Task: structure prediction
Amino acid sequence: MLAAWRDSPTRLREDAATEADLVRAGYRDRLLTELAQNAADAAVAAGVPGRIVVRCTGRTLSIANTGAPLDVAGVHALTALRSSGKTGDTGEVGRFGVGFTAVLTVSDEIEFRSTSGSLSFSRERTRAESAAAGVSVPDGAAEFAPPVLRLAWPLAERPGAGADTEIVLRLRPDIDPVALLESMRSEAVDLLLELPALEEIRIEEFTARSAIRDLATPGLREMRIDTAGTERVWWEYRTSRARWLLPVRAGRPVAAGPDVLRAPTRSDEELSLPALLIADIAMQPDRRRILPGARLRELAAGYAGFARALPPADRPVLVPAPGFARSEVDGLLREALLAELRDNPWLPVLAAEPEADGADRADDRVAVPARASVFPGLTTELAGLLGDVLDPLLTPQLSEARHTEALAALGVHRIGLARLAELSAGLDRPPHWWWALYSALEPFVADRLAVEELGALAVPLADGRTVTGPRTVLLDDELTGLAEPVPVHWARLVHPAAAHPLLARLGARQATVADLLSDPALQAVLTDHPDDPDTVEPVLRLAAVADAAVLPPWLGQLELPDGTGDPRPADELLLPDAPLIELLVPDAPFGVVSAEVVAEYGAGALRAVGVGWDFGIVTETDPTGPDHDLDDEETWWAGLAEDPPQLVAVRDLDLVDDAAWPEALWRLLSDERTRPLLGDADGYTAWWLRRNARIDGIPLGGYRQPAEPEFAGLLPELPIPGLSGPDLDALGGCLADPGAIDPALAAMLLDALADPGRTPTPEVVSRVHTRLGSAVSRLDISELDPPDQVRALSGAVIDAGDALILDKPWFGLVVPPDRLIAVAPGAAADLAVLLDLPLVSEQVNAEVLGRGHETTWEQEPLGVVARQLFAQPPQPGPLVLHDELRVRLSGAVTRTVNVAWWQDGDTTHILRPAAAH
Result:
């Protein structure tokens, strides 16, 4: 080498320039990296664990390692600079093969100690040796620094204990040992990751150790690096061209942060991949960038195997997150990795069917992303139901929101509620499966949009059909407890085993048993086929759990067998032990239902559809006419002022035996359905009973309530033993009502007034006459014959020809009470028409005798007191005071009478009190 320099100063200049470029290239912070690669190679060559120990004493730095010792080839390599000899645009020399030459960045005095022999390198010794050998300094290089690593001198020192090789560097004055050691510490973890042949790096008191072990999954290894008591864990997966490292936190793999391409050590190619990449890839001579034309996409080969090796729930961590690439290399690698992941099976999906041995194989079943589907937020419960419906379907762990972006990047088909509803239409599953599906779907129905998306969800019905759309079905909570579903064929009734509350939220209408039995569709079925067994069976089963009070009367069309086996409408049948049987006339047109039907369905169900036990009820909303087959209904209807909003009436009252009416009334009062009808005076039931139900030969309308004084002494009380106040009140609509006098009651009152055996008080007689007069405008008096005898004010019964209607009260002071019929003045004229009797003021003339003292009500103290005493309003006419007030009568009554008061037109006559004289 000295001869070469002597003969060619240019060569000397080139070697010196090469070393100078290495120093200027800034490899000082890569010193440990470059030496670690050599140490790793030495460890591999020797087949021993690689260890590096760095110590610094004063300004002497020692880097020792285990591995193959220095040999002759190694000496040649050390003195050959093993560099490219080329410079880039900036004049920097590349790193390819830099290795040991990196020591020049910190030292000019270097020792390479090895168990096989040691060498030393020295810039000053090289300078002195060159001068002694007559090597000329290149022109223009007065301060020329000769190369350090071209000349080597044998050295007696050997490496320290435990080391196979030790490099000792005397640091140049411009090198800060503390900063240099800190830089080395920062590289230690990366070096252990990048160079698995190294197991330990010790820098002064700092120690980093790595341990690698195989995991249960083939191809997956775990690398643990302990630094000063802090342990970091990675999972490693090797492919033909790359090592992939994934950080592990708390036992779960997580995506790595932004990093660089490692080949095998760090380069300047920035990456944003989820795993660290240590690649076998051609690099440019400076080791900073990949070589143009390098086949980057080949690095992605086998990456899907890495994903499949991970636990199923953690596999999406390897999908590159959406975002901008950090470099051109990064963009190419991201595309290559996504293509690798899209085209290979690795995503865990649900098992379509259980394994033959019953074991769960869901974790072993994988799919290509493009063929897989994901239901966002899939729960374990829903997954167990959809495994064979949406095959292949990603497992619940991969359906979480945190994986949404990754799955979208892979092209996994996203399944929503609407698509699931569509797919459900073709499923054949038992009702309990559907209930489980609705229960599993319930947490997903959080807003109106979700309700709309599930609009086509399939629903199983009680009759075995499966229909589309919860909005088209009916729910009935009253049937969920039945052992067997009721096959309702006229309505879309949800099977009770599938009747989940979610269906109501999705639009299913809540229907009661009464709603099902009131359905117009059922009415149409009964009209056409009243004896169809497919209808009789469900109707009676529903009726068994229904509220009979709210069922429609047309259910009575349902035909059932009677005791002889012949079908008859239910409302023409009675139960075998019905108490109504004993109340009816012998020829009543009712049959008795078959005992077998009673035993099969129960008396309650039969009564609910109209089979008689007590009296039947006719009900209709908004009736339009007397078309309900009620006795004398036309007469009642004709007496109504307007059509009633609802008709509720007891039917078949005309079939009750007259002798059974006391018991019949007890039955009507005891039934919650019929009791209210007895108090409705305007209703058909009370109207009919008032006119036609007779006790002791008297219609109910001819009896009064004991608490009612209006008819005391005229009408009898109801002679039914044991009737208490509440029962009598409930019967009020059937008894005589002073406020609602109809022609029948008017006739009975006129007969009672003419009966000498009755003993009403004058007050009762007066009030009854007033009520009769007030009722004339509402009565058809052509139906009433004027009585031959009438009740006078005195209580006496007199011939009608002797009676006068008291139309002006002051005539009552002068006409005898046994000729007067007292009545309120406003009703006198109408009563006169009803009784065909004259008014007293028309038959009797009166003349006031004497003139008296004429004054006014306002001026006369007695007038003021009189108005206050009798609560009279101001009077229009004059007031005449008499010391003696006499009235002369003529006409039907002839007499002269002293009176205290008289009215003559607008003039009022008053007898002056004696104390006033």
